[in-house]
Each structure stands twice: as C-alpha cells, then as structure tokens.
Amino acid sequence: MRISKNAGLYLLTLVLFFGCKKAGADSVKPSAPANLQVNAVVSTDGSGNVAFTASAENTSRYSFEFGDGVIVTQTSGVVSHQYTLNGTNTFSVIVTAKSANGQSVSKTIAVTVTVQVAGPTLFWSEEFNTNGAPNSSVWGYDIGTGSGGWGNQELQYYTNRADNVIVANGVLKITAKRENFGGMAYTSTRLLSKDKFSFKYGRVDVSAKLPAGGGTWPAIWMLGSNFSTVGWPACGEIDIMEHKGNDVNRIYGTVHYPGRSGGNPDGSTKVIANATTEFHLYSMEWTASSIKFYVDNQLFHTVSNSTSLPFNQNFFLILNVAMGGTFGGAVDPNFSAASMEVDYIRIYK
Questions:
Q1: What mean pLDDT is predicted for residues 279-303?
Q2: Is 84 helix (H, G, I), strand (E, B) or coil?
C-alpha cells in the first residue's frame, strides 16, 4: 500500500504530539502542603482552654500534638483543647498538615497555659484581730481541775484570766504558769467553742507556735457536739495537733473513738524543726471517707472514716495548754511559764 507523502507527515506529527504530551504529564509531581500557618488563642480564665487554627495549601487533614500526650487528627484545621496540669506551664505543640497523597509539613509552636484548679472555699475563720479577751460569741471556757485532772491526771487549774489567755497583736496567747491557784501548782486556759460554733466536714488550718518546757502539753483538737449526752469516747475526738514539751518537735495527729481510745488511739507522728520558736501550719482534712493530718501541708497520717464511726456529725473546737499528766509527763522543775500562740484558725469546705 502506498502512503502519500502528506499522509506520512501527518501521522508523524500525531505520534510526536501525543508522545510529548504523555511524557510531560508523567513529569508533573503531586503538590505537597505549603504555607502552613498555626494560631493559638489561650483562655485567660484559668480553665486551660486553647483554641487552635491551622491552615495550609494542598492539605486534606491536620494532626495536632498538644504536648500533653493528646493527639487529634481532623480535616478543618480548627480545634479546641483543654489542658489540665495545674499552674502555669508551657507546652510544645506540633501541627502537621498532610496532603491526600501522604506528603506532609509540620510546624511547632510554644503555648503557655495557666490552669487554676478550683479548691475549697473559706467557710469560717478566727483571725484573732481584736485585742483583749477571746471573742465570747465563739469561745467559752472550761474552768477548774475537772475530774481527776480532766481525766488525765493533769496538774493545772484552768482559768479565764488575762494572765492565762489574751488576744494581742493579732495572736491568741494561752499561757501556762507555775503558780499556786485553786489547790494546783499551775494555771492555764482551755478555750472551747461548744454550744457556740460547730461544723461537719472540711479542712481546718491552724497557724500556731508551741510552748517550750518539759511537761507542757499543748493541744488543738475537737470533740463531737453530742459530748454532753453520750460522753467520751462515744462522741469521738479528733486531735489536730498535740505536742509534748518532753519530746520537742514531735507532732501528734490522732483520733479517739470506742475501741480506739486512751492508750490505743488511731494516730501517728511527724518530727519537724522549730516547733516552739516558729509558727507552723497544723491541718486536718475531714470527709465522710477519711480524716487526714498534715504539718506544713505534708500528709503524715490518714484514718478511714465510715458510718460506723462517730465522725459524721458536728464537732466543736478546743484550744488548751495542759501541764504534766499521763501524756505531758514530768514537769521541768525550772519551768515558770510558756505560751501557745495561735495566729489564725481557718476552716474550708
């Protein structure tokens, strides 16, 4: 068959055209993501919420690594994340833009977030800011020697005299003194909020400096409000802080109840420094499930609470300095006077 010269040239032109077009098409590479932009708006309300916005060309999805172990992948590039680590912290956030064919580009930004975890609120406080006798609307007194030295063979006579208790310069001072009074060799004070103030559950913080001297026995403690009707230990007792002048710096946190009272309480101790020369924070957290004891916010004893125990009712507060007795021990013959100073009592719920 003969092909004309013109027809041959035509066929050659077609072959060259389509051949060049195919080769050009094969040489075009898929586009990778480009121009990745990332923006973060941090909430200022302490919630830890941050709004992220990412945008990039040639992108089908975005991956957000928030720096706290959480990774989220989605298509819009707009996402919110809540950080939960309390305080102010900086996180490295990695955002990756990915194309449909698997190519990617990443960008890292630093995000500083403040998280304020809601804590308990102040329910009641005694700041001891009014000079003179303690506030009579809150505090009453146990007077005298009690039964058998308040049941512990104690050696003091409790009074409500200014010599033994006074508020001055923002501090309550309960002073134990060597003096003959009411047939006893020492005087002191026992303050209590019985029938004036009581509460159920919460955290109690007491800032106090303890008396020095062998035989001193300061205590910050609580009794169940049904004490007058059921007696002790059925009413329950929570000793937020006890200290022996004969064992300086050892702090006791204890509960008493039927079966665990007297010489068999449920308690523990923590040794600190400068208990008699510096103020420390003595705390107790009380819930339906536990009672926890702290010194300077350091936990040192936990008691399991339950409906079978008397620690699910209102309790009142007691502050006192005893002398000698079954816990305080022998009094130093050189003892003359020493004070427990209380800066404040604060109860949170």
A1: 98
A2: coil
